[in-house]
């Protein structure tokens, strides 16, 4: 009895642990001729286009396509003939009862012979992201930028020799592809509750693929040089196409260089705004995605940039910080926010305070007044390089006027209760300026 | 799967009497199984599916009892109708009875003489319905697209249908077999090169005013507009509600996926607007530059009882694209208001909504200022 129990338990464990092989197959022709992956970064979504060659007979042909243990959205399946389109009618696509992950096309053909077809579908599990490394020059006037993309495949399917394309852009999605892929029935069942989910498959389970690792390395060695990435705009998106083909087995990721630009002129910008940064300044490197800055051919996908600085004899590095930045359109200025620093000090000091011009209602209560604040602002650059400083002041009232003095140009009104002062400081320079703010409260606001 | 819906013909008054007095389990069914003739599945109402099946009943002279029962399917019992297609003048439907605790009904049919009568039985069947999906492939210029409409037939009713007429509306019918548990996708519309208009929309009520303050990009919603009219290659009938997926030719022999949306029914003459995604190459930054009370009116206690406001809104619109873009900017001013000065023409969509339509050339930066007064605020 005990022996039987052990045996049963072993079988159960084997059944549970055995990884199910992924399968994407068209029974009449088991092999893809070519495959193209268009991977999106704003959503877990990849458009797959396979080219296969079918042997059709004249009359009705039934073609089976199955995708067990993958994350394919069956509602996106489509087959289009690549030739003899006038002789082929795709009658329908059926998802037969009692069979999961299987579609059956009925194709009426007036032609007999080989026909190339394109099969397209959306799948989940393939992702890509951009990341960057910037190295600023010792004088911090220029930065060298290396851009990379990292493509990861957790789709459950191995894609060998695939043409890889990446899309930058935010698309509107009604349903997450992964949810569509996990439905028990491709379009759900009629009536509530819609879309019963089946148990998660092992598509994301790690798999041992030593032979694939060897294959990947061999392919990389054969290439001998980094692959170029072609960039082009389509609709509201940007399409990045990696030169040649890539093999990305399930569970693997691949990092590829996307661009390298030397000597991008950058401005050291320090921002002070109490409401956002407290009493410290926030350091940023700013540049524009344009020709003047040796960029401007395409937008730059959002990502994280790690910024280093050349120090010593130029071969050593100092880590300056990292910045997560948004998508940067062409011609748009970008500020890489490197975080709070104490090397540039902005110190606004309230030097005078008074109230004036009180107004009273008929009952003798105060109904309005002016508040006059006199500020002295000291801006100190402790660094050995010239910098720019932007100081924002929020007045929290829409009715105000300001008088200013000191060694700065002029202030700029940002919105109805915010102004900003912009200063350029030389290395180790300190500047001071003053301003007098008169804020009108209550009835006094109505008089101005 | 075997057919679950059966029809039985019970003949004779004596049997009818026995049938009334017998307990349920003992109910005797005399089987004269008329074969189901042509069957149609009507899907024109998205909320309910009507099955119509034709059968031939062999009637005796006098009262005939016809037993209609079903098992393993969900029929709305109050929806069952019997229509006489032949010999209507010789045959009278006298009664409809429901046996206790059993999914069935019994028709009492009086016939003047022995006849073979063709009848149509109609009923609403659950768990069988249709969905509509669309697939559009826009050209590289985004001025036209090919549009396909698919009918998705889902049958989880418990009943198999062999060569049934699938009726989508008065003009569209398809003969298909569909088994219980099966889903079938049919192409029902395939139109080429339908004109489309691409539009960008900034709605000041729903989108952030100052994108610089946010850690993520603020996208301007982008839509395709398609007119359901003959000049646009459509307009034969209303476009049904469903999910729309839009792709675009990439100029290299394949496509990219642009986005998806759902649509309500689009009657002939109306526009279908498909929101595909967001543009991050058009940036709108809007700020209120001024707001103050004017024309203040007071009561005898010098309290403010009525006032106007003087407000100034400045919107900066930047097109970072290398192509022109048609932007609709929607602004909202609540209450009673008057425009003092505005540097761009607008149309009033309603009392409180202003539409600014502008064509932005490539790399254009434009500023819209609205100086307006809101009146008679309390």
Q: How would you concisely characterize the structure shown here?
A:
Chain A is mostly beta strands and 448 residues long. Chain A has 5 helices and 28 strands. Chain A has a domain of 104 residues: Immunoglobulin-like, CATH 2.60.40.
Explain how this protein is built.
The complex is a heterodimer of chains A (448) and B (378). Chain A contains five helices and 28 strands. Chain A is elongated, with a radius of gyration of 32 Å. Chain B has a six-stranded mixed beta sheet with strand order 5-8-3-2-11-12, with no helix packed on it. Chain B is elongated, with a radius of gyration of 32 Å. About 6% of the residues of chain B have low confidence. Chains A and B meet through strand 2, strand 5, strand 6, strand 8 and strand 12 of A and strand 9, strand 13, strand 16, strand 17 and strand 18 of B. Strand 6 of chain A pairs antiparallel with strand 13 of chain B.
Strand percentage of chain B: over 45%
| Overall SS class of chain B | mainly beta
Q: Please report the first level of CATH classification, the CATH class of the domain at 344-447 in chain A.
A: Mainly Beta
State the end-to-end CA separation of chain B: 73 Å
Shape of chain B: elongated
Quaternary class:
heterodimer
Strands of chain B, total number: 25
The value of Rg of chain A in angstroms is 32 Å
State the CATH topology of the domain at 344-447 in chain A: Immunoglobulin-like
Q: What structural class do helix, strand and pairing data of chain A support?
A: mainly beta
How many helices of chain B? The count is: 1
Report the span from N to C terminus of chain A.
96 Å
Into which percentage range does the β-strand content of chain A fall?
over 45%
List the helices and strands of chain B in order.
EHEEEEEEEEEEEEEEEEEEEEEEEE
Poorly predicted segments of chain B = 10-33
List keywords for this structure.
heterodimer; A: 448 residues; mainly beta; 10% helix; disordered N terminus; B: mainly beta; Immunoglobulin-like; 6-stranded mixed β-sheet; 1 helix; 25 strands; elongated
